[in-house]
Specification:
Oligomer: single chain
Number of strands: 19
Shape: globular
Structural class: alpha+beta
Strand content: 15-25%
Number of helices: 20
Radius of gyration: 31 Å
Distance between the termini: 80 Å
């Protein structure tokens, strides 16, 4: 059985698999997890993988790589849902449908303290207070907090800033904070402000407006017209916010629309929470409806499930999915499929319409990206093109020299794989030497980790290409295709580039500069250039930062080190007085005055 793999291995393994619910992991020959799945009946589900003719191309490809199988039985199907979601989060298997955005969704937190504050919050809800959300973006959170500050005057500053205030800040002057830090409002009055914010965010708008209206009338009767006008402005602002929102809820609800066009599926989720709404979506290729609960559990791992989840498609095992969501939420969650009435029907129609439009727009982009990638693959004359690396250098006459590498796949730029190289040896104005150092370091590491690209793009001409080919011969590397992109006559004019291929390194290729392929090559080159310049500026600023002190007469390496150890940063040193500088060991009054004069003139 050790030598068996793929379907043969699974058929042999099936003899020991039970018919209980559970979770399975498929592993390749290196022990890497290819896929995590769940099953109500493990034996029945795994038997399906042995019927090759019924499998999609993606699943057939996965099964062919299987060398090992790990099975964990669970008490029930809902436990299998939760374990599967946890394992997917842990291993990020290549063949599972993964949530693209790995960040948690932002919330607004109204803290529970003497003077509550309103702030943006991500992550586990460990802090005491009331949470509102989720929101679909940080910008939406910031806009909402700003609006609530304008209406209610609630604080948003950190506790350290709040505790250090001796007089009201600018937000008080522009009427966006009531300044409880300086007792411009009593604790009781501020507690009412916090309660008003909480009531409004929880959808208790009518009660709040009645209270504010009564307060405005009382102030008018007492002839406190300025205060009455301020309350009136709050009422108008609240009416405006409510007028722009079509959401009036008795319970939190998520509406999830699933639309398929050809090989692509759009899953669009609309959050409905009291006076809040937002949406997220993901386009997935070769999506199987059986994977929908698993995909949604990835979302609800990052945000609290609502009371009701509405799905446009009917799924199997609804009860088990409900139980899994209920365990995550700590409350009863209801899943409704297809049969909707009144408001929910309206929401679902809008969600389906949005999903259809989103899919139509994005599929066109996907198709175009695929066609461009195929054209690039043909240019390299490759049967398989999985990963491209693009290289560029940046320096000023050899100073602060940095090499940059970006990585692209058919899905786009893979920014988590970008690399910066601090160039140590080639410190002169020698682009060839810099590229050699960068490539040698990258290729040695790639050989060690068995992680080499299919193709390389260089920002340079045939000179750069010849240097790289020489490196490849020295290291006995074969099978990686190379293109060098030489700038046009104007050096920085786009559309005038000349290409040099490794198969004919001295023969220039004049491409069609208006083609989509050329636009793709320019975009790859420009991204590498952007990353290289940014890396160079970062390095240069750090070097300038640390060399500033050495320009002061009487400050050498030791005194610079003592100053940095004492103050931490050059900015802190520049703001120190002569007396504070003299507290540094070894700094007398004369040297301290020189340091002070250097920064202050």
């Amino acid at each position: 059985m050790k030598n068996k793999k793929g379907c043969d291995y699974l058929k042999e393994k099936l003899k020991t698999i039970s018919e209980r619910p559970g979770v399975y992991r498929m592993l390749d020959e290196d022990g890497k997890v290819l896929y995590v799945g769940k099953a109500k009946n493990l034996k029945h589900r795994l038997t399906n993988y042995t019927q090759e003719k019924r499998l999609s191309y993606r699943i057939r490809q996965m099964v062919s790589k299987v060398h090992d199988l790990i099975v964990v039985e669970t008490a029930g199907e809902s436990e299998a849902f939760l374990l599967e979601a946890e394992l997917i989060k842990q291993f990020h298997p290549y063949y599972n449908i993964l949530l693209k955005d790995d960040k948690s969704y932002p919330y607004i937190l109204l803290t529970k303290e003497m003077y509550p504050r309103l702030c943006k919050y991500r992550g586990d809800r460990k802090k005491d207070g009331t949470y509102f959300g989720p929101f679909d973006s940080g910008a939406a959170v910031n806009d909402t907090i700003k609006s609530l500050q304008k209406i209610f005057g609630i604080r948003s500053c950190s506790n350290s800033y709040f505790g250090a205030r001796k007089r009201p800040c600018l937000l008080y002057q522009i009427k966006r904070c009531s300044a409880p830090c300086c007792q411009c409002v009593s604790q009781g009055e501020y507690a009412k402000i916090a309660n008003h914010v909480r009531d409004f965010m929880l959808g208790k708008s009518s009660e709040l407006q009645k209270e504010l209206t009564s307060q405005m009338k009382s102030l008018s009767c007492a002839q406190e017209f300025e205060k009455a006008a301020a309350v009136r402005d709050k009422i108008f602002a609240l009416n405006h916010i409510q007028g722009t929102s079509a959401i009036q809820l008795t319970e939190a609800t998520d509406t999830i629309a699933i639309v398929t066009q050809g090989n692509y599926t759009c899953i669009q989720l609309f959050f409905h929470r009291q006076n809040l709404s937002g949406n997220i979506y993901q386009i997935i290729k070769d999506f199987n409806l059986e994977e929908l609960p698993t995909f949604l559990l990835q979302i609800y791992d990052k945000t609290i499930p609502p009371n009701v989840v509405c799905l446009s498609e009917k799924i199997e095992n609804v009860t088990a999915f409900e139980n899994a969501l209920s365990k995550i939420a700590g409350k009863k969650v209801t899943v409704v499929c297809q049969n909707f009435r009144l408001t929910r029907r309206q929401w679902m129609d809008e969600a389906l319409q949005n999903a259809t439009q989103t899919l139509r727009q994005n599929v066109d982009k996907e198709v175009l990206a695929h066609e461009n990638w195929e054209a690039l693959k043909n240019l390299f004359n490759l049967t398989k093109l999985t990963k491209i690396e693009v290289y560029d250098n940046s320096h000023i006459q050899g100073a602060s020299a940095v090499g940059a590498m970006i990585v692209a796949t058919e899905e786009g730029f893979q920014k988590n794989l970008y690399r910066r190289f601090n160039i140590d040896q080639a410190q002169t104005n020698d682009d060839f030497g810099m590229m050699r150092e960068v490539l040698m370091r990258r290729l040695k590491r790639g050989i060690k980790d068995n992680d080499l690209p299919d193709a390389i793009i260089l920002d340079g001409g045939k000179g750069q290409l010849s240097q790289v080919l020489k490196i490849f011969r020295e290291m006995n590397i074969d099978g990686i295709r190379i293109i060098a992109m030489a700038k046009g006559a104007g050096q920085h004019d786009k559309g005038l580039e000349t290409l040099f291929l490794d198969t004919a390194p001295t023969t220039p290729i004049i491409p069609d500069h208006k083609s989509q392929l050329m636009f793709l090559l320019q975009r790859l080159r420009d991204e590498a250039h952007r990353f290289a310049i940014g890396s160079h500026r970062l390095k240069r600023s750090k070097e300038m930062f640390h060399e500033t002190l050495l320009e002061i007469e009487g400050i050498g390496a030791k005194r610079k080190k003592d100053l940095m150890n004492h103050f931490g940063t050059v900015r802190a040193i520049s703001g120190a007085s002569v007396a504070q500088l003299m507290q540094v060991e070894g700094l007398n009054e004369k040297i301290a005055k020189k340091v002070y004069t250097f920064f202050h003139g």
